[in-house]
Structure formats: C-alpha cells, structure tokens
Amino acid sequence: MEDVAIIDLFYRRTENAISELLIRYERLFVSLAKNILDNEQDIEECVNDAMLDVWNSIPPHKPRSLAAFGCSIVRNRALDKYRYLCAQKRAPNACSALVSELDECIGHNDVEEQIDKIELCHSINLFLDSLDKTNRVIFVKRYFFAMGIKEIAKETMLSENAVSVRLSRMRDKLRCLLEERGAFA
To answer: Could you tell me which CATH number the domain at 3-87 has?
Structure first.
C-alpha cells in the first residue's frame, strides 16, 4: 500500500492504519531503533510507542514522507529510552560515541540556551545542503540513523578510514558554520 493510502487510513481513523504502516516500514523502524538501543525488548517497546505517537499525530499532521515522519518519531523514542537508561545507569554504550562526536560541534551547554531549535535546524539544513550527495548520505546515516562506520563504509563502498575522515571533516565544517551563525557566543 502506498504512503498516501496509509495516511488516508490514519485520517479515517481506520484500525489497520498502523498495521499497514508496519507492513511497509517495520524493518526500517526496527533497524533505526536497533542502531541506538541494544535490548530487543527496548527496541520493540520503542517501535510500539512510536506507532501510538504516529496514530496520535496523524491527523492533524499530514506528512509529506511517511517514512521520514515515522523514522523521526522512532528515533526520538529510541533516544528518549537511551537517555532514560543512561540516567538509570543501565545503558549500554550503544550510542555514546555518537553523542560525544556531535558534542564537539554543538557544544557542551544546552543547545536551547545558545540558539533556538528552529535556528539550529535551519543551520543544519544549510550545512547538509552544502555537502555533496555522498557526504550527505554518510552524515545522515551516522547521525540520524545512528549507523556504525563499518556499515556505512560497506554501503558507500568506501574504506572505514575514509568514512571516519569524512565524518571528522564534516563535524569540523558544521562546528565552523554554527560558530559563524552565533551558536557559540
């Protein structure tokens, strides 16, 4: 079933809207959650909670891309669960490397104190627009989908070292852009 038809099911509040969404995108959603969380139960809970969030969000939202909309919700749920586990000192170190990599770009203070979310989002979009397709794919796979460097290297047919170097350079470029735009006062 196409995205438009699935969104229509949500708008009509049809009970099988979620099952149709999962038929189409469950592997993607589970893969995304698995990149952030290690525990199968946490992953399943995260995806289930995200599906409830999608149900409660459509309507009023009408996403242009159902996959991106669902991934965004799954990702946020997985990161919330990861933060909860960290606070409880039960978290595996699944994505602590990701957090530390971007910390050096965004800073150690609360981002909302430095720049509001809309401006940060705009700055990151400008940054992504400035990248060539390969670098944009690498950056999004690493920092949105939380994929490992080895997996990204395999998909992009680059060496792991090349991916690491590109990510390092992109973080430096992002840090410079954020500094120029006043993210670090």
So the answer is: 1.10.1740.10
CATH, domain 96-180, list 3.10.129.10, 3.40.50.620, 1.10.3720.10, 1.10.10.10: 1.10.10.10
What residues does each domain of the chain span?
3-87, 96-180
pLDDT in tens, 93-149: 545 556 566 655 655 455 444 445 667 777 888 889 999 999 999 999 998 888 899
Any idea which residue has 């990702």 for tokens?
75
Q: What's the helix, strand, coil split of the chain in %, to 5?
A: 75, 0, 25
Q: Residue 108: what pLDDT?
A: 47
Q: How far apart are CA 12 and CA 175, in angstroms?
A: 45
